[in-house]
Amino acid sequence: AKETGRNTFQFYAAAMNEAALQRVRLEKHLRNALERGEFTLQYQPQVDLHSGRIVGVEALLRWQHPELGAVAPDKFIGLAEETGLIVPIGAWIIRTACAQNKAWQRAGLAPIRMAVNLSARQFAQRDLVKSVARVLEETGLAPEYLDIELTETIIMSAVEDTIAVLNDFKALGVQLSIDDFGTGYSSLAYLQRFPIDVLKIDRAFVHDITHAIDNGAIANAIIAMAHSLGIEVIAEGVETEAQCEILSRNMCDEIQGYWFSRPTSHEAIGRMLEEGKCI
Ligand code: C2E
Ligand code: CA
Ligand code: CA
Ligand code: CA
């Protein structure tokens, strides 16, 4: 038994070592990724349920490494956060996304919002609002076409400071959204303290919507309460027409998900806008 115990230990030690090594390797690659131009952004449409038209897109980060291939955000965003690399990467994301949105407008396409995800680490940067203001100025994008997505967890982390930063963002004129709503511990009543424009219902609730037990009850309640606070609602992860119909019946404002379009290139979005692709 002692032998097995030791073998098991050695096995775990080796596995842990391997995991730690992999992390170090990934971190090394991540440090070089920005200057080597390995990042791109994809854009996923957000569609208005009243008009059926694209009214916004969410920018989503993609990393293509020459040896590792495509690395999913779930595999490296956490590491980028821990190492602080998310700060320069995040600055690149905001700049690229704003410049892209302005480029669509310059091409004569109907203006849409650009949603950008902010990480906790970025949110803690003292000059965050100023640097966003600078990007808007330099790219020439009007603030109302930028939408900052923050998770509940970020918002709840340091309440007083948070309210000040959010107020500065509102003074700048950008839109503020709460991402993954329903996965944290905040209530809508609590969120009333923050100057939020949009709430994104997490895809877990959207998934349950067509299931007999739930029948859209949770999504319905979230939508009704958000509206009573003057907050718009986007449903995330909409994969079927049935989900879209229920959300539409429940007065959801916008949908985002594979059913309408997967995240895609700026060229593909440009074509959708040009052709007036709608539901
Ligand atoms: P998120 O902000 O909740 O982004 C939505 C995720 O859901 C995206 O995954 C998107 O591809 C996926 N998705 C969209 N429609 C559907 C659908 O119908 N069904 C399903 N199953 N999934 C759908 P992605 O791009 O892999 O990103 C994962 C997470 O990584 C994001 O979740 C976000 O937390 C983070 N992330 C991605 N890009 C960025 C970024 O630029 N900055 C920061 N800080 N985080 C990012
Ligand atoms: Ca998001
Ligand atoms: Ca989300
Ligand atoms: Ca709207």
UniProtKB/TrEMBL annotation:
GO terms classed as biological process: phosphorelay signal transduction system
Phylogenetic placement of the source organism: Bacteria, Pseudomonadati, Pseudomonadota, Betaproteobacteria, Burkholderiales
Record flagged with keyword DNA-binding: no
Record key words, sorted: Coiled coil, Phosphoprotein
Domain EAL: 23-277
Superkingdom of this protein's organism: Bacteria
Parent-record interval covered: 119 to 397 of 573
Name the record gives this protein: GGDEF domain-containing protein
